[in-house]
Amino acid sequence: MCLLDRHRSNKSCCCEQRVSTGGSGHPLGRRSRRGLIVSKTLVIVGAGPGLGMGVARAFGREGFQVGLIARTKEKLDTLVGELAELDINAAAFPADIRDRDALVAALAAARDTFGPIDVLEYSPSPTGPITHAADTTVEAVTAQLELHVLGAVAAVRHVLPDMRMRGDGTVLLTTGVSSTVPAPFLANVGLAMAALRNWAHTLHTELRPHGIHVGAVTIASGVVPGGGEADPDAIGARYHHMYQQRDQAEEVIGDLEAFRTLVAQYSVDGALPSLNA
């Protein structure tokens, strides 16, 4: 659908009208100043074959065009090809998320290709050493903050001006279970995830009156193909549902209480559980 209006200028976005065709009344497209109905755009920062593709398929099946941002072009091209087989219009925009200039450039390229970004989904996978609480160093925390918090801040600040101009937009920030349940064996990741979750909630409160929906998605289930609610497509459907429920500040996928039990057991016997950060 973006072929109808791919070459519009940056100035055209303020002249677009939203077009609501869904039963929920949520806008599924927008009408450009030339009268063309164009698809909405989802951009996934930290796209991969699991969670990212689950979200991409869920939105793509609802008519969204999809931009994928991650570090490796070859892997992104494979994902774009898989989406094309599902008749989902997608494109790859390679960037190292920790390089904030490169991330902003990738977001700008996505906008140039598809038009204004309607939904930003941020979900990079944790990388680098994961530390226990007493072993956490400044360097270990900085690495996770660069990935999960500072990258998110850079991405959100880039898309907000367009969203403010239109009075519409959605930002979904993904966190792990350690954002909510303190876990000594996920200390540096938990620091970053908790900060991201906190920021998502404050953004939700501040931007909601302006028509912009910001939500945190906390994944306590892991991402497991064929794993019931942990299956990537099941998780993707939850993201799309949250997009539709614009008053929702947080979606929790999985069982936080089960993880609390594991943390309590760790404090007794020191056995490390195998779960999402």
Automatic annotation (TrEMBL):
SUPFAM superfamilies: NAD(P)-binding Rossmann-fold domains (SSF51735)
Superkingdom of the source species: Bacteria
InterPro entries recorded: NAD(P)-bd_dom_sf (IPR036291), SDR_fam (IPR002347)
PANTHER family found in the cross-reference section: OXIDOREDUCTASE, SHORT CHAIN DEHYDROGENASE/REDUCTASE FAMILY (AFU_ORTHOLOGUE AFUA_5G14000) (PTHR43431), OXIDOREDUCTASE, SHORT CHAIN DEHYDROGENASE_REDUCTASE FAMILY (AFU_ORTHOLOGUE AFUA_5G14000) (PTHR43431:SF7)
Protein name: SDR family NAD(P)-dependent oxidoreductase
Organism, as annotated: Actinomadura rubrisoli
